[in-house]
């Protein structure tokens, strides 16, 4: 028998990481999922593969592959750690916990700065009080006027509309713990049967039921189920770039007298005029100023 016939045939393929767990990376390629590890030189080069990464890998079977190269990323989120996201479904609840426009705006900034298309989903409308329902409806009108797509959901969601958004795309679903992310995913794909947890009355928030980031098949696309989180960092966002994360502010910046206007204390500011004339929602402008102050007061990191 010829010696070369004894050698295993090794294939070099391209695929996308759909799960990272315990040092293994599960890469989806041409209808199959391969269990792989990262080459040792990745650590030396300070490179870490992320869920969502497009990669080049080698494998002679589906359980013993190695990632050779991480292809250039379109974008990257820190919380959750995931790359190459097309759309972000930001889930908030009308009640338990009560919907917060401030928190919503902070999530939107984190998504906008990565050039990811955000979609807002406000859950638990069926168990919210009348005042909470009214607040959610008013917020919906404001965000839709800005240009965002907004869903108000009960225990049943508009599955066709959400599936249409996800088809052919990679989406991330994110929000505070306990707002119903896993419940929403289970409704979109009942075969997932993801773990859900009730709100902890003592903490006033949900228990974390998701332990790792994973791309899950939903319709003709993927959605990342991500661990619940409620804090957002803007380490790489400069104060002068915050305005680009608020579409209604960016649209009016050209009308300001000063080119470097931050729409804070400057005279002849088109944004402040729009706020006064109620063309920009006051809570959106207040949140912009709050985040701007935080960015300006941020301590430098070395």
UniProtKB/TrEMBL annotation:
Q: What's a BP term from Gene Ontology annotated to this protein? A: ribosomal small subunit biogenesis
Return the SUPFAM superfamilies for the record.
Answer: Nucleic acid-binding proteins, P-loop containing nucleoside triphosphate hydrolases
Q: Which GO terms describe its molecular function?
A: GTP binding; GTPase activity; metal ion binding; rRNA binding
Q: What protein family is recorded?
A: Belongs to the TRAFAC class YlqF/YawG GTPase family. RsgA subfamily.
Give the organism, scientific name. Listeria kieliensis
Positions that bind GTP: 123-126, 175-183
Provide the protein name. Small ribosomal subunit biogenesis GTPase RsgA
Query: What Enzyme Commission number(s) appear in the record?
Result: 3.6.1.-
Broad class of enzyme this protein falls into: hydrolase
> In what residue span(s) does the EngC GTPase domain sit?
83-230
